[in-house]
Structure formats: structure tokens, C-alpha cells
């Protein structure tokens, strides 16, 4: 017959303490709200110490107010990325609000670190993306429609309707990044002659667009 295995009181207590220790350690790793006062490293923001974490780290109220669309694009994007919303640090999600006035546009841009999915809450827009095979995928969206833009691909939204459009977009990263094509070409000091040579635009037109976007060179 097999003998019953006996556990000594000391072993039992040690096992119980280890369970408590690892459970507490795991709980401390449930979330990592951003510590904006600490240096930012290659992996992103450091986390607040557990004693400094509050429920306010997990609440963001900035998306309830319409953005200012008085700009060249007639559009405003209000982000709730890790830079603005500490609670999403390390969780791989984030959100933005986009307000687009009639005739406005979210210009061609890409997010190098995230797939994006948009929900049209108000209005009618034309949205689309371009694949790496340079095929365009374009659709007119109405209230309640959603559309996904795969990670890293150029995409855009145009409001050609007579009323404002409101969009909420979510991302598969807390820090999706964004590169706007117009700003990359015309808002900095990329030499005009090189832009003209690489895009086949006229140098005069390049300089005109730099005047619109505040670029030089």
C-alpha cells in the first residue's frame, strides 16, 4: 500500500507565503500607468509606483469636446494616446476623436505601429487606404459604419458632405505614431529641388505648398 504523503507545518506555511507573494506580484503587473516625471526610454514611459496610482490614471475626459477645425485641413484630431492618457501605457490600445468640417480632410498618413479602426458617429465621409501593391480601397461611409486601416498603410478621410463629421478611432497600440505625407514633404526643410525630383511636381508648386504648410528650403 502507498503511504500518505505528510506535509510538515513549516512546508505548508512556506508554500502559503509563496502563493501570497506571487499573487501580489502578479497583481502589481496588471497595469503600468505612465510616469511623465521619469525619463522616457526606448521601451516608452516608465510606470508610476504602485502607491502613486489612482483611478484618475484610467480615465480620460478629453474626447468629449469638439476640436478646432479652423486650419488648412478643416479637421481636428484629439488623441488619447499614452502621451495624454497614462492608463493605456503598455496595454496596446488607444483612441482618438476626429472632427471634420464640411470640405475637410484627414490627409494621407500612416501609423507605423498600429492598425486603426474607425467608427463614424455623425455625418457622411469618403475613407480609404492604399495597399503596398498601390491598390486603393475606398468607400463612402455613413453614420454607424466602421472601417479598418491595416498597420502602416497610407489612409485618408474626406468630408464632402454639407455637415460636420464626427469619428472615433481606436488603435492596436498605446503609441501608434503618425506620419502625415503633406507635413513630411512641405512642413519642414526637405529641399524643394529634391521634392520636385522625387515627386515630379514643379519646384514653384513645391515652394507654394511649403508656404501653406510653413516649410523652408
TrEMBL record:
One of its GO terms (molecular function) is manganese ion binding. CDD domains: cupin_OxOx. Mn(2+) binds at residues 109, 111, 116, 155. It comes from Ziziphus jujuba. Residues 61-207 form the Cupin type-1 domain. This is Germin-like protein. SMART domains: Cupin_1. Gene3D superfamilies: Jelly Rolls (2.60.120.10). Keywords: Apoplast, Disulfide bond, Glycoprotein, Manganese, Metal-binding, Receptor, Secreted, Signal. Transmembrane segments: none annotated. Belongs to the germin family. Oxalate binds at residues 111, 116. InterPro entries: Cupin_1, Germin, Germin_Mn-BS, RmlC-like_jellyroll, RmlC_Cupin_sf. It is found in: Secreted, Extracellular space, Apoplast. Its main location: secreted. GO terms for cellular component: apoplast. The gene is LOC107423898. It holds the Pfam family Cupin_1. Residues 1-28 form the signal peptide.
Amino acid at each position: 500500500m502507498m503511504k500518505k504523503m505528510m506535509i510538515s507545518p513549516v512546508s505548508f506555511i512556506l508554500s502559503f507565503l509563496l502563493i501570497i507573494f506571487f499573487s501580489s506580484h502578479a497583481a502589481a503587473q496588471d497595469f503600468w500607468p505612465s510616469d511623465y516625471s521619469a525619463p522616457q526610454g526606448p521601451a516608452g514611459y516608465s510606470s508610476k509606483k504602485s502607491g502613486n496610482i489612482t483611478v484618475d490614471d484610467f480615465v480620460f475626459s478629453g474626447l468629449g469636446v469638439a476640436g478646432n477645425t479652423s486650419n488648412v485641413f478643416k479637421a481636428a484630431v484629439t488623441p488619447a494616446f499614452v502621451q495624454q492618457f497614462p492608463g493605456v501605457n503598455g496595454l496596446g490600445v488607444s483612441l482618438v476623436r476626429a472632427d471634420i468640417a464640411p470640405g475637410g480632410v484627414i490627409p494621407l498618413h500612416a501609423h507605423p505601429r498600429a492598425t486603426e479602426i474607425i467608427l463614424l458617429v455623425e455625418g457622411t465621409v469618403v475613407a480609404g487606404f492604399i495597399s503596398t501593391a498601390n491598390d486603393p480601397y475606398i468607400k463612402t461611409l455613413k453614420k454607424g459604419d466602421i472601417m479598418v486601416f491595416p498597420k502602416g498603410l497610407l489612409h485618408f478621410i474626406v468630408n464632402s458632405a454639407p455637415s460636420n463629421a464626427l469619428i472615433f478611432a481606436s488603435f492596436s497600440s498605446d503609441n501608434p505614431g503618425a506620419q502625415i505625407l503633406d507635413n513630411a514633404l512641405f512642413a519642414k526643410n526637405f529641399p524643394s529641388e529634391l521634392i520636385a525630383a522625387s515627386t515630379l511636381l514643379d519646384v514653384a508648386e513645391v515652394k507654394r505648398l511649403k508656404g501653406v504648410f510653413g516649410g523652408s528650403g
